Amino acid sequence: MEITYGHRIMSDDDPYIEIAQGVNQIVADAGNPGMTPVDLLPFLKYLPAWFPGAWFIRVARDAQPMIAKFRNYPYNEVKRQMADGTAKVSFLSMHLEELARQGKQTPEDINAVKVAAFQLFGAGGDTASGPNTCLLNTSKTLGQTFSALLTFILAMLHHPEIQKKAQEEIDKVVGNDRLVDFSDRDALPYINCVLWEAIRWHQAAPLGVPRRAMSDDVYKGMFIPKGSMIVANMRAITLEENVYAEPHKFCPERYLPKPAGNSEPFPTFTFGHGRRICPGRFLAENSLWIAAASILSAFNISRARDSKGKEIVPKLEFVNALISHPKPFQCEIRPRFERTASLVHNAVHDDSLDAEARNILAD
């Protein structure tokens, strides 16, 4: 939200959260791309909403006001802040400044920027909140970034020994007097392995974005006619036994060079292929890395306990949808050190980061 609109979420009743949750619910109701009747038979879009089985018409009709609100509300807020001179650096503000500089402020140009900002946030974000002993509510369709982060937390609950090893690496490199930053990344190879294993172990997007064959083709003797819809089975690729030994096992060491590991490749293909590869992959990977490294540096992730003090072992259950994410589970996330709370608080309220953010966006 801050990268896209320059808006920092400080409370659970923030209007941006309400809008985002509404849009996420719309995505969940719409189902997987290419899997609804209207995707296969486009003429069905002309059916009236009352027609039996035309649920997709009703979903599209009811979604329009919320989609429009998410496009326009942040845009209007950023425009107002720019006029007042209070706007923070963001994807939207920088593009609006560039359009103004080039004199390209047609309705089409403005709408393109609105949609791009909408997609940027929608691909990565969702919300969750709760006290130290929390139920991570993931009932709505989540962005892939957030889904991968929840999978990482779930993996740490099942593998406390991996969490301990990762924290030992951080303590050795960073210590406990500051938070992790990107300058530490090269010195934290195990953290990098933990992140990529969370991405591979349970791929957030089990089926790739549908593609269309632009011409007739033949693959392993199978004829693929022009216009065919092709969906990559990303889940099968991440669990390919010829590439990943014991693929269902969460094992960050698999990526380390031999003899410490098995020199298996990072699953970078999870961000797509070819010219349609995810344009936000570097932002997503960096966001995941800094989030996972910061959590491991500042907090201990442990299992919640029931009323009798017995540990609650969360089940490895996932929602299978366009974006697959863990079903709600309980855990405890507590500061590792006395200084952790103040370090995190100071980082959240540090507005001096805007200059660095501008440089990152400019690059």
TrEMBL record:
It is found in: Membrane. Its main location: membrane. Its cofactor is heme. Keywords: Heme, Iron, Membrane, Metal-binding, Monooxygenase, Oxidoreductase, Transmembrane, Transmembrane helix. It comes from the Eukaryota. It is a single-pass membrane protein. InterPro entries: Cyt_P450 (IPR001128), Cyt_P450_CS (IPR017972), Cyt_P450_E_grp-I (IPR002401), Cyt_P450_sf (IPR036396), Cytochrome_P450_fung (IPR050364). Pfam families: p450. The keyword Translocase does not apply. CDD domains: CYP64-like. Pathway: Secondary metabolite biosynthesis. Belongs to the cytochrome P450 family. This is Cytochrome P450. It comes from Somion occarium.
